[in-house]
Amino acid sequence: MDNKNTPISLPDDFDPAVNLPAREVNGKIFHATIPGMNLATQLIENSTPLDLERAEKVLDAVFESQERRPGAPHYGNFTWEREDEMVEDINAVHFTVMPLIKTMLRCRDSVPASLRTKALEGIRLGLEAIARIDVHLRYTTIAAADVFDTCIGGELLKDEALIARGRDKLRRWLAFTDQSGTFYEYNCPGYTGMSIERLAELAALTNDSQTRIIARVFAARAGVSALLHGHPGTGRWSGPFSRAYQPQIEAKTPPEIDWMRHWIASGTLPEWTTSALEDKSMPLEVKETSDRIGQQMITTYMDEGFSLGVASKDLSSQANRFVEGESSAFIAHFNCGQETGVLISKYILDEKWLGDFRTTPSRSNTQLQPDEGRFWGVQDKTRAIGLYAPRVIGARQPCSGLKMALIWMRRDLVDEIWIGDRKVAALPADVPSGETVIVGSGTMWAAIRPLTRTHLSYNPPQRLVERQGNLALEVYNYEGAAKTFWELGWPSSFYQGMPQCGFYAEVAERGTYADGAAFAQTVAAGQLNDKAEAAFTYDGGDEERLWNVEYERDGRRLGLKVDLMQWKLKQRWTEDGDQDWPMLKSPLAQQTCDGRVEVGGAKLECGKAAAWILADPERQCWVATYHGPKAAPLVFDVPEGKVEIESMGTGMVIWDKGRVRIEANDMRGTPQIQGGQVVS
After folding, report:
1. What percent of the chain lies above the pLDDT cut of 70?
2. Are the C-beta atoms of 528 and 503 separated by less than 8 Å?
C-alpha cells in the first residue's frame, strides 16, 4: 500500500505503560476504554506502518477491558475504565465497538491480518453482548447505538442474524416512537443530537435501501424536533429536557444552534429542514409528546429574547443513579448581554448541591447536580405551574433535607430581586407565605409564587439565598437532623399522601414592566386556587386525595390536578380546555396519526399512521412525511400544486419551488404531479 501519510503524534495524555490515554480524577489515575478505542481507530485510519503497529497495541489494551470469561454475566461487554474490576455501566459496549465498526468498514482489507482478526472478533463479541442486553426502546440514546452497531456491524461481519435483528429493531423503534411523537428521551441538548447522528450515519452506510429510507425519515423527524427548539435569540437548545449535564444546563458549552447548523451544512439533516431552525416567527409555541401512555409531553415558548419550557413530568423510566437525576422539567433561557442566563427548578434531598454527588469514582463530581423530585407540570405560553414530590422518601433511609429550588444559574447576571413590592437589598432573604418573588435578569422578568407546602419540620425555611454563585429560591418541606419519615413510608399505618411542594411561574420581557413591584402586582391580581382534599390514612386501595391548583387572569387560566396518594396526574388544562397529547404541534410543523395533516397552507391525506408536514410558504417549500410502514395512497396538496401517489410505505415527498422529490419504500404507480415536476 502506497501511504504518504505522516504518523500521528500520540496525545499528551497517552500512557505508554498501558498503551491508553490517562487522566486524573480526584487524585486517582484512570484509563478510559472509549478514548482508547477512538485513538486506535485514528491510528488505523492514518495507516502508516508505525500507526498500525501502535494501533494493535492500543487495541490489545482496549480488549483487556472486554469481558472474555465464558459464562460471565456481561460476556463481551467492556468496563468503562481499565481500573474497574467488573462491568457496571453496561452502555460501554455500545460506544466502544461503534468507532471500530466504522473504521473496519472502511479499512478492513488494508490492515494487517492479526489486527483485523482481533478487531472483528472484538466486534462480534460486543454485538452478541448488545443483543443479550437488548436495551428497551425507551432508552433513546442506547437504542440508537444498538440499531447502528447491529445493522452496520452485521453488514461488516456478513452476519444475517445480526443484520435481521438490527433492521427489525429500527422498525420497532420507529413504531414505538410513533405511538407518541418524538423520542422518549425528549429534547436532550447532547443525547438527542447523538441519536440523530446515528440515524444519519446508518442511512449513509447501510447497503439496504429500505433501511436507508427508514433511517432518513426517522432522522428528519427527530431533527425537525431539535431544530424547532433552537432559539435564535440565545443560540441555545430551548425547552425542558429529559437528560443533560451541568455544563449544558449552565449554558457553558458552545451554543447548540451552531451544532444544529452544522447538521444541515454537513448533510446530517437535509437542507429543507433549515426552515425549522431559521424561519421561526416569534413568539412561537411548540408542543410534543414523548410518552403518550406515560403522560409525558413538553411545551416550549419562545420570544425574541427568552424561552420558557415545561415538561408534563420528569423522566421516570430508569431507577439508575447515572440517569434519573438528569431531567430539567422547568427551564428558561434569556439574553444577558453577550451571556445567556438560565433559570431551572429542582427538588433536592440532603442539601446536595453541585459537587456533592458523583456517579462513579472516575467521573467528575461537577458533572451533575441531580434533580431528586417527581414532577407534574403544565404551561400556557409565558405561564406555568409545577408540582414536586420527593422521588425516594420514607421510613427506611434517613434524610436531612427536602426542598424545592428555583435556581438562577448566574447570580452575577441578576439585575434586581423583589419580594412583592419590596426590593431585596441583601441575601439571604426570607420569603413570606403568599408572596411572589420577582427576578429581573437580562431580557427577562421571572415571577415565582410558591404554593402550599407540607411542613415535615417546624416552620421550614422559604428563602432566597446565594449558593456557589447561583441565586436560589429554596422552598423546604424539611430542614433538620437526618431522620426517617414514618408518615411517608408505604406500606405503612401512617401514610396520608406525598408532601406538597410547588410553584406558579410567569415570565415577561423586561420592558413590559417598569420594575419588579409592577410585575408582582400584576401577578397578585390573578386568582390562585390552591387546595388539597382533607388528609386521611391510606389503605392501599383506589382512594384518592386530590390537589387542585389553578391560576386565572385576564381570561387566561391554567391548572393541574394530581392525586397525592399515588402521585398520579388527573388533569391538565388551559383556557383552551383539557390538554391532550399532541404528537407535534407548532406553526411550522404538525404531526398526527389519523391520516390527515394540515399546516402552512399544505394538506396531507394518507394512511392512518404517523405522518407530518414541515411548511415554509416563504421559501415555497413543503415536506410531507409518512411513517407507514403499511403502504397506503397519499395525496399532498400545497398552494402551488398537488402530488398524488397510488401507494407508498415509509417515505417523504419534498415540494421545493415546484421541484418534487420522492423518497419512499414500496411505492406503486407513477406519481401524478400538478403544478410541478419530479426531479432526481
Report:
1. 96
2. no
Whole-angstrom distance, CA of residue 100 vs CA of residue 207:
18
Position of cell 419540620?
457
Q: Which domains does the chain have, with CATH numbers?
A: 14-272 (1.50.10), 313-577 (no CATH), 588-678 (no CATH)
Please state, in angstroms and rounded to a whole number, the distance separating the CA atoms of residues 141 and 621.
31
Count how many residues are written for the chain.
Answer: 680
Distance CA 269, CA 275 (A): 12
| 265: number of Cβ within 10 Å | 11
Confidence tier at 483 by pLDDT (50, 70, 90): very high
Q: Which amino acid is at 113?
A: A
pLDDT digits (tens, 9 = 90+) for 435-466: 999 999 999 999 999 999 999 999 999 999 99
How far is residue 350's CA from residue 464's CA, in Å, rounded to a whole number?
A: 18
Maximum alpha-carbon separation in the chain: 82
Beta-strand (E) ranges in 337-413? 339-349, 373-380, 383-390, 399-408
How far apart (Å, rounded) are the C-alpha atoms in residues 409 and 117? 51
Residue 428 CB-density burial (10 A; 0-12 exposed, 13-18 middle, 19+ buried):
middle
Cβ neighbours of residue 142 closer than 8 Å, sequence gap 6 or more: 91, 94, 135
Long-range contact list for 103-112, CB < 8 A, 24+ apart? Answer: 103/41, 103/44, 103/45, 104/44, 104/156, 105/152, 105/155, 105/156, 105/205, 106/45, 107/44, 107/45, 107/47, 108/156, 110/1, 110/47, 111/44, 111/47, 111/52, 111/55, 112/52, 112/56
Report DSSP letters for 3-42, one per residue.
Answer: --PPPPPPPTTEETTTTEE-EEETTEEE-BHHHHHHHHHH
Instruction: State which amino acid sits at residue 162.
Output: L
Cα–Cα distance between 599 and 242 in angstroms, integer? 28
CA Rg, the chain, in Å? 27
SS3 content of the chain, % helix, strand, coil (to 5): 25, 35, 40
> Which helix (H) or strand (E) covers residue 124, if one does?
helix 113-133
CB atoms within 10 A of CB 249: 22
CB 525 within 8 A of CB 517: no
Rounded distance between C-alpha atoms, residue 310 and residue 287, angstroms: 10
Q: Evaluate whether 410 touches 469 at the Cβ level (below 8 Å).
A: yes
Taking residues 307-331, what's their average pLDDT? 83
Half-sphere exposure of 54 (CA within 13 A, CB side): 28
Which phi and psi (to 5°) does residue 185 adopt?
-80, 95
How is 189-256 classified by DSSP, letter by letter? Answer: TTHHHHHHHHHHHHHHH-S-HHHHHHHHHHHHHHHHHHHHTB-TTT-SB-S-BS---HHHHTT-SSPH
H/E stretch holding 531 reads strand 527-532
DSSP state of 317: S
pLDDT of 1: 46
Whether residue 203 contacts residue 157, with contact meaning beta carbons closer than 8 Å, is answered with no
State the pTM of this model: 0.95
Note whether 198 and 145 are within 8 A (CB): yes
Give CA–CA dist 505/319, Å, rounded.
29
Distance of CA 26 to the CA centre of its chain: 29
Smallest Cα–Cα separation from 585: which of 597, 594, 576? 597
pLDDT tens per residue, range 658-672 = 999 999 999 999 999
| Residue indicated by cell numbers 480526584 | 26
List of residues 6+ apart from 264 with CB closer than 8 A = 270, 271, 273, 274, 277
